[in-house]
Amino acid sequence: MNLLLLLPEDLVAPDRACLAGRRLDHVRTVHRAEVGDDLAVGLLGGRMGRGRVLRLDGDALELALDLDRDPPPKIPLTLVIALPRPKVVNRVVAAATSLGAARIVLINAWKVEKAYWGSPRLAPDSLRHQAILGLEQAGDTVLPDLRLARLFRPFVEQELPALVGEGTGLVAHPRSGGPAPRTMPVPITLAIGPEGGWIDAEFDSLLRAGMRPLDLGPRILRTETALAALVGRLF
Asked: Which positions ≥6 away from 223 have C-beta within 8 Å?
């Protein structure tokens, strides 16, 4: 982790924190910190700074905190991602969070297996944990707005147009022929389909909701690869 992310319940005083578990193990075995060392820390939903190690043993890590700066701003991006395979969900949520997306919507699509929606990886605690890992990687403290949209049509017809608003809506789709715009009003709403793309009816619905086609070329990419390539192209 590049940032030791503190939870509100870790605070024992406004300028003191005590934590255990996964983060303690990481500080001991990866950072190999010692008493007196400074660590990069941040408070979930709050500011960032340094934490000086006051105690470090097998039971607890105690830190004196100096949180003197704000986290990096989110990029003005809403990601609408067709739900990937359960073992890929973790990587996608963590990656989207680390890239700085302000909002993430995991949506149903024709090529999404119904069984995916029953995966324990979609439990709120599991999704939150993956987002936290993304924050730790990126050096951020603010969670994205993360939600599930199991019904494609109601979301696309009733909610998506408002998300696009006066900004730019883009739908990634193989062989659609749509180039990346040179200038785009922000915020940007970007829809990424299943591997192999959206079916025609879904693609047409997304276009009617105000989205424009965006083509990454002839290759079929994994969701996490397409995510990184598209965000890198747009921002």
From this structure: 81, 82, 84, 88, 92, 192, 194, 195
Average of pLDDT values for 1-5? Answer: 93
Q: Token pair of 34, please?
A: 């010692």
Q: Which CATH number fits domain 4-69: 2.40.240.20, 1.10.150.910, 3.40.50.1240, 2.170.130.30?
A: 2.40.240.20
Largest CA distance in the chain: 61
Give CA–CA dist 197/85, Å, rounded.
14
Q: Are 15 and 23 in contact (CB under 8 A)?
A: no
> 225 and 113 in contact (C-beta within 8 Å)?
no
Question: What does the pLDDT look like over 97-149, one tens digit per residue?
Answer: 999 999 999 999 999 999 999 999 999 999 999 999 999 999 999 999 999 99
- For the chain, the structural domain boundaries read 4-69, 75-234
- Predicted structure pTM score: 0.93
With CA atoms as reference, report the closest residue to 139 among 99, 184, 104. 99
